[in-house]
Design a protein that fits this description.
The chain is an alpha/beta fold and about 325 residues long. The chain contains nine helices and ten strands. It is globular, with a radius of gyration of 18 Å.
């Protein structure tokens, strides 16, 4: 059943006194440490680095399961970077990162030092891999109209896909409750970040249920994945009556992005689909858009390149 476009509750208003974010310079693609990532094991060096601004812990949550998870599916694991200082009066801002295993593989102590008051939560799985592809195919993709259960998707290696409607209640419910347990959190400053399929999920959730988070960051969203599903969601959201102010949205993309395994020349500009969508969202007045192009970045490079700006965006 398609998810309702009607917000379940009023979306927390962004702080009216928050300054406009100045985007930090992009890390040149040539300076990124990007060994082949396909099938790569995550190193998570940040967890063992000296870090004055944050402490780290891992929460394994076998009791929280996706309703369509296979018996052998990897359980959820939360990666948490928690400020070592005292909580502000309003509570900590929180950044939630999809593909948490990969996100925490690219985070480092220097990045976190720039946002000492930000809680960072990586939503991942109990695995040594950088990406747990079966879980992300299940969790980050919305089903087709009338689809029941998971369906193998030819565009994503025949992995069972279409379980996002089962993941959203976990993301905003049990997983959020576990992540924030014992923390003084500011509900008006929760941000959701995603890359690739995660970036498409972020856009879908923002359009379908804008109340779920206060801010959104969509990096290199996989707009190629079933555009016939995304298009009606976009149209319905843009046509719906406005009930709140513009949603803060950060979008980033590389200039050399192309789908893995597809031939043709390497591009030297952002994908047209990304530019058209960003232009349309900005023109709608429904988002307060910050847009950044990562010169020379291929698809996987846009993930780490996005992190400095994302952290500052979420910490405002």
């Amino acid at each position: 059943m398609p998810m309702s476009l009607t917000p379940a509750m009023p979306r927390p208003e962004p702080r009216s006194d928050a300054p406009r974010l100045a985007l930090p310079p992009v890390i040149p693609a040539a300076e990124l440490d990007l060994p082949p990532h396909k099938g790569r094991q995550a190193r998570h060096l940040v967890l063992s680095q000296p870090c004055a601004s944050h402490r780290f812990d891992l929460l394994d949550l076998p009791q929280i399961r996706h309703p369509l998870a296979a018996p052998e599916a990897a359980p959820y694991r939360l990666f948490r970077a928690l400020p070592t200082g005292r909580a502000p009066e309003r509570g900590w801002p929180v950044l939630y990162m999809l593909d948490g295993n990969a996100a925490f593989d690219f985070l480092d102590a220097d990045m976190l030092a720039t946002v000492p008051d930000l809680v960072v939560i990586g939503i991942g799985q109990r695995t040594d891999a950088q990406f747990e592809r079966l879980s992300r195919a299940r969790d980050l993709t919305f089903p087709a109209e009338g689809q029941v259960g998971l369906v193998p998707d030819a565009g994503y290696g025949d992995r069972p896909a279409g379980g996002a409607t089962g993941f959203v209640p976990l993301l905003t419910g049990a997983l959020r409750a576990a992540a924030e347990a014992g923390l003084a959190v500011d509900p008006a400053r929760r941000t959701l970040w995603g890359h690739s399929l995660g970036g498409l999920f972020v856009l879908n959730l923002m359009l379908r249920r804008p109340d779920s988070f206060a801010r959104y960051a969509a990096i290199s969203p996989s707009l190629w994945w079933h555009p016939e599903r995304f298009a009606p969601v976009l149209e319905a959201a843009l046509a719906a009556p406005r009930t709140a102010g513009p949603i803060p949205l950060y979008m980033g993309v590389g200039t050399r992005e192309k789908r893995t395994g597809f031939g043709g020349p390497v591009p030297d500009a952002p994908p047209e689909s990304f530019v058209e969508l960003a232009d349309r969202l900005a023109a709608s007045g429904r988002v307060d858009l910050l847009r950044q192009v990562y010169d020379g970045a291929v698809h996987i490079a846009s993930l780490p390149t996005s992190l400095p700006a994302t952290l500052r965006f979420a910490a405002v």
